[in-house]
Amino acid sequence: MHAMPDGVGVGPDAFRLRDVLIDPPTGLLDGPADRVRLEPRVMAVLVALARRHGELVPRQELLGAIWPGGEIYDDALTQAVYQLRQQLGQAGGAEYRELIKTVPKRGYLLEAAVQEVAPNGGESAGGHRVPLLAAGAAMLLACAALAVFLLAGKPVPMEAPADPIRVAVLPFLPLLEQQRDLALEHGIADTLITVLSGQGKFVVRPISSVRHFDEMDRDVLGTARALDVDAVVDGHLQHAGEALRVNVRLLRVPDGVALWAESFERPYADILALQDDIGRRIALALAPKLDDEPPRSTRPGATQNVEAYESYLKGRYHLARLTPDDLRTSLGHFRDAVAADPGYLQAWLGLANVSFRLPIAGEAPPAEHFAEARNAVERALEIDRYSAEAYSYLGWIEHWHDWDWIASEAHFRRALEMDPIDTEAHLGYAHLLSSTGRHEEALKEVRRARELSPFYQVAAALEGRFLMGAGRIEEAQRRAEEAVALDGDFWLTRVSLAGCYARQGRVDDALSELEIAQRLSGSTWAVVLQIALLARTGKRVEAEALLAELLERSSRRYVPPYDLAFAYAALGDGERAMAWLEQAWSLRDPKLALIGADRAAWAVLEPRPEFQDLLRRMNFPGATD
Question: How many Cα atoms occupy the beta-carbon half-sphere of 593 within 13 Å?
Fold first, then answer.
């Protein structure tokens, strides 16, 4: 128990939120779980909500009261509320995160009683509604300004920006090139990203955005500027036998000043504790007044099992590559991780992630893998019922397997309310919006994902697809060509570019891109799109030859029935197309979720009552009687 006695060492404006004592002038939250300090603007959000606890406080009112006269985007308030929830949970326990409710598109409310604390101890008389500093928010901002003035002549690691500090953790590199271990190099970076993100004070670029920057001769500051961050973590490691040596430095991006640097030499068995230590030291270098976070080993679902951790790192590495072979390899590693430590939260989340992606990629029958994904999410929520990532994965499952658009949207909204900087949640929500014909909203979500993860190729590919859905072909082509120039080996951006070329009548260019995509991935979807393009351009014999190869392949291994239905529809064979769609329905082929966004491809089936019946069964808008 950390809490101070009432009235001892607190100012006249202190108040209590359940068991957490809050002192606005000092920024302290003192609760049964921990003592933490809020940044002045975040404390101002709490004060504004507490003054009207139980009432809706509109977003614009909060913005105007806390950032008067400034041009502030909604994301700044969203991030402040996210940070406040995280730190309330740290001070009082996980359930305190739920006290601040979001009313979509309107504002926030504090759903808890607030009690004033008298300076001489005890609760104030009748204190249900607390004065809470008639000029509380203004005073807090004045304190923030004074702090900047007082610190002006002192060395500080980072200037405190109005928005959270943006950080990139690059993949660690070996001291010697012949000692490369990509899973470990990416894995240490991924773990540090998780540790820093958990502080709630920084916007940390996800591993998907930095994984390509693992060249031995990389330009660290140039890479950081491309990622649009304020600070960058650069590290080298040497793993020899049972020993692990790690050199780490934290650089301020505008001028390249080293904010912190240190070398560590530990037994490899201590790698988990070492990463916690590095993460806390980086956080304190970025924000020197930041109270130490508890080690990850004390948080829900952390592991002390090095074998489980190694399997998890390998699973994450192969998952990020997103080829069918890598997805299958990733699945095995995550299964090994949860077998080694059944209480390992991140391993269960990784297992859920890869399990629902395999059938979406068309590489496995849906039933078994979606069941495994759902079970993994349930296990994750048993470990931490406040896991935003778990709710995001429920959104993916409801979208791609259950076709429950309303439930899917609710899960994505909850995930983003809990963690507004979750790139995958924004992408999943964008997919749902596109599937239900809300293309402009989908574009907004996918662009938010790209802001958070500028070099994530999945986001780039999806943005191209959604732009095409909105009829903005030239813009889609520019985005796709930029993505291919950045990484020509990612097959989905090749598919996106092929779609743009096809819409513009550049058939040969489109076919060339699809052939490259098929070589890179081995995906049947790239073959199906070739069949459709050949059929539409009068090359029926070639299209039928490719279809025959695909049917022969389906006798040896799984081919999604949706793919075969799509091919037959392109060839104008409505009977066979409908038969394969019904099989897709019976198997719950996840690609059926794409029909809503690809209605033009199914023109041959539109007049058929059984096709309209299928759309109604899937609750798609626009189905006719």
Answer: 25
Residue 618's closest CA among 357, 367, 405, 356?
A: 405
Quote the pLDDT of residue 297: 42
Percent of the chain with pLDDT over 90: 41
pLDDT at 295: 42
pLDDT range class, residue 74, cuts 50, 70, 90: low
Separation CA 355–CA 366 (nearest Å) = 9
Query: Using alpha carbons only, how large is the chain's radius of gyration in Å?
Result: 26
User: pLDDT at position 14, please?
Assistant: 86
Within a 13 Å sphere around the CA of 69, how many CA atoms are in the beta-carbon half? 2
Answer yes or no: is pLDDT of 129 > 90: no
Cα dist. 164→230, 453, 483 in Å?
A: 10, 16, 28
Q: Which residues contact 220 (CB under 8 A, 6 or more apart)?
A: 170, 232, 234, 251
How many whole angstroms separate alpha carbon 590 and alpha carbon 528? 16
Tokens linked to 68? 């008067």
Interatomic CA distance for residues 451 and 437, integer angstroms: 23
- Rounded to whole angstroms, how far apart are CA atoms 185 and 249? 15
pLDDT at 345: 94
Q: What count of other Cβ atoms lies within 10 Å of the Cβ of residue 243?
A: 11
pLDDT of 264? 87
How far is residue 49's CA from residue 26's CA, in Å, rounded to a whole number? 18
The one-letter amino acid code at 211 reads: R
* Residue 603 to residue 534: CA distance in whole angstroms: 17
For residue 121, with 0-12 CB atoms within 10 Å meaning exposed, 13-18 middle and 19 or more buried, which class applies? exposed
CATH architecture of 307-540: Alpha Horseshoe (1.25)
Residue 209 neighbours by CB distance under 10 Å: 23
Return phi, psi of residue 246, to 5°. -135, 130
Beta-carbon contacts of residue 240 (< 8 Å; ≥ 6 apart): none
**Fold of the CATH domain 165-296:** Rossmann fold (3.40.50)
Answer yes or no: is pLDDT of 60 > 90: no
**Edge-to-edge strand ranges of the sheet holding 114-116:** 35-37, 28-30, 20-23, 15-17, 114-116
CB atoms within 10 A of CB 519: 12
**Token reading at 69:** 């006269």
Q: What are 26's two structure tokens?
A: 């000092």
Helices (H), 67-217: 74-92, 136-151, 182-197, 207-210
- Specify the higher pLDDT residue, 131 or 213: 213
Distance CA 85, CA 90 (A): 9
CB contact set of 54 (below 8 Å; sequence gap of 6+): 109, 110, 111, 113
Kindly indicate whether the domain formed by 15-143 is annotated with CATH number 1.10.10.10. Answer: yes
Q: CA-CA distance, 114 to 101, in Å (whole number)?
A: 15
Report yes or no: 336 and 311 within 8 Å, Cβ to Cβ.
yes
Q: Which amino acid is at 413?
A: R
Q: End-to-end distance of the chain based on CA atoms, in angstroms?
A: 64
Determine the pLDDT at residue 28: 84
Q: 245-250, long-range: CB within 8 Å, 24+ apart, which pairs?
A: 245/175, 246/172, 246/188, 246/274, 246/278, 247/175, 248/278, 248/282, 250/282, 250/285, 250/286
Number of H helices, E strands in the chain: 25, 14
* 457-471 average pLDDT score: 87
Within 10 A of 106 (CB to CB), how many other CB atoms are there? Answer: 12
Under DSSP, the state recorded for 539 is -
